[in-house]
Amino acid sequence: MGGLEVIDxxxxxxxxxxxxxxxxxxxxxxxxxxxxxxxxxxxEWSDLDIQxxxxxxxxxxxxxxWPTWLAEIVPTVFARTPIAPFIINVVTADxxxxxxxxxxxxxxxxxxxxxxxxxxxxxxxSPTSHSHSSTRSRNSCAGSRVHSSxxxxxxxxxxxxxxxxxxxxx
Length: 170
What we know:
This protein is of the alpha+beta class. Helix content is 21%, strand content 32%. It is built from five helices and eight strands. The strands form two sheets. It has a five-stranded mixed β-sheet with strand order 1-2-5-4-3. Strands 6-7-8 form a three-stranded antiparallel β-sheet. The protein is globular.
């Protein structure tokens, strides 16, 4: 278990490509590791999770333009947003898998959870400053094994995502 040193060495080059490729983009505030690599819990089968923080005033344009800036940074064979519009799942031309999360004005802080969590959610970040109710909003799991958003204090969705423990049978 560890960070970049335990995963495929090509991931380090991919991370450098993202940092260099987004360095001059005025819409981008930060590019950082996320997920198991950042937490130091990665193993040889782990993928690379990258968090990009876009300036709040440029967020919608940057997120909407993801196919363009992604293609300029790394050749891909697959790139989609099946979980949420701000999470981009990528397979590169050389077979590496990346999960890219785009934050609005600040990095996401994922709460620690006793539920089964995967990818970017695996132990990165400190607990959020608000509590989550058990109320499910759109994309409710209901046995479908998909990520579901969690309603914060009964209010609108805050953007924190997790896997339903019941669906994964943990």
